[in-house]
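Page 47, continued from p. 46.
Same chain as before, 229 aa.
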Amino acid sequence: MFLIKNSIYFHSSFFNKDCLRKLSRMKFSNNTGCFSSLSRTISSLQKYELLNHKSIPVKKRYASNMNGVDKGSLVYQGAQSKIFKHLKRFSLTTSFIGMCAQPYLLYQCADMSLVLAVPLFSLISVFVFGNPILIHWIAKKYILRLYYNVDTKVFTAHILTFFGFEQTLTFTAADVFVPDVPGPFSMFNIKGQPMFANEADFTSIQVYKQMMGYDKPLDLKTLNKKLEI
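Result:
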């Protein structure tokens, strides 16, 4: 009987604890009624398992855009993404405060001479309007995240807008142009737009080579023409 009880505990490891306590108090005899009661108990436990046992769903994370198209897996995460986001928010906030404070400054400086007023308000205007424009000129080239769909061979880059929101840019390896002399704060051009992405932040060096076109054979004729020029 000890073996029968152990087998019940083994096969009912997912059952309710109350049912197991009831089984532990059961006393089995050596008559045939023992096995009939045992079979009824096991069948009732199986029904309880089917009714109450719920499987835990496995969560899967898929990257998809607003249209429901699969963007693929994450192959690049910019290490400086948070810095650029906070910098843009700070610059926009300070510019907004400066714009709101200008009427008050004009009222307070109404009696100031033009020799002092013109340089002062010119400096304030450069700080209010020039600072966010300069920061956006640098931040818009930085790729925050990059996804790659192996089936469609399409890259999806997340970049910042002027007001600090994220927007997506889809492209293929054919849309990427690597100039011989890259521009300031850029490494390559995507559809004519200068972009920057740190090679060390890529999760797959093969995807990076494919995007940059380094996996293609070297064209010696084109290289000779460039050297001649």
